[in-house]
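TASK: fixed-backbone design
INPUT:
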């Protein structure tokens, strides 16, 4: 049932309405508080460097691990969420500690946000970031790379998986990709066009279709793993997005 001021579709795509352990009015505030605290702690205790991949103000990423890890350490890439218009890499370092403790190098990717950037720009930025990461992995002699992201970051992870982006890489770099792990992602953007979320994005139907991983499915000839994850309490719309991506990918590969 729609909340006052929101359509039913708005509610389906508003995660704050689907958190059973707290009221929707404090979900976002709590998320920001928790992720900022852990991200600040991580940056104060785990060695990291900043790598730029473009000229945009947010076209940069953190690389955690430094010389504390061997060059051949595997790499885990995390692309933050925020509906392509909120959050940043600085407050998205919360996955780092257990991965670093396990000997894994971690890349936290930032990107420009709406309304300053549109969906086409954001997608192209993340593709460039992915290329920089793969060049870095090759230079280090990394044993392999996993790409992941949450919510909008799950969508951008799906773009790297389905858009033909891998075909643009040298074969040696493609062979370093171990898998993709989109978490609670949005893989069909067309419903977003009809929600309040599209206000800053200003996507039309054509742009939404063009950047929907569900519309980019193609057979892949690479030995990679795909793990599609969604939350137990995610809305039915979010759960359907992940299930549909999995089914469509499985049907074409």
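OUTPUT:
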């Amino acid at each position: 049932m729609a909340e006052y001021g929101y359509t039913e579709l708005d509610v389906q795509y508003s995660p704050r309405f689907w958190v059973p352990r707290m009221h929707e009015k404090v979900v976002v505030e709590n998320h920001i508080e928790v992720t900022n605290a852990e991200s600040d702690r991580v940056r104060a205790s785990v060695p990291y460097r900043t790598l730029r991949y473009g000229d945009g103000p947010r076209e940069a990423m953190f690389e955690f691990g430094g010389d504390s890890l061997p060059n051949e350490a595997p790499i885990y890439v995390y692309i933050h969420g925020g509906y392509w218009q909120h959050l940043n890499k600085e407050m998205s370092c919360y996955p780092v500690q257990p991965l670093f403790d396990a000997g894994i190098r971690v890349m936290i990717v930032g990107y420009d946000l709406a309304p300053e950037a549109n969906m086409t720009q954001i997608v192209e930025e993340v593709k460039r970031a992915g290329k920089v990461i793969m060049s870095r992995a090759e230079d280090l002699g990394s044993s392999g790379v996993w790409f992941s992201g949450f919510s909008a970051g799950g969508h951008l992870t799906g773009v790297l998986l389905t858009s033909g982006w891998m075909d643009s890489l040298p074969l040696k770099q493609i062979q370093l990709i171990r898998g993709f792990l989109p978490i609670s992602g949005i893989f069909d953007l067309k419903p977003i066009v009809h929600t309040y979320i599209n206000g800053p994005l200003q996507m039309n139907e054509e742009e939404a279709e063009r950047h929907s991983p569900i519309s980019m499915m193609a057979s892949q000839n690479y030995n990679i793993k795909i793990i599609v994850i969604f939350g137990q309490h995610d809305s039915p719309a979010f759960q359907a997005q992940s299930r549909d991506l999995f089914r469509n990918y499985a049907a074409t590969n």
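COMMENT: The longest strand covers residues 177-183.
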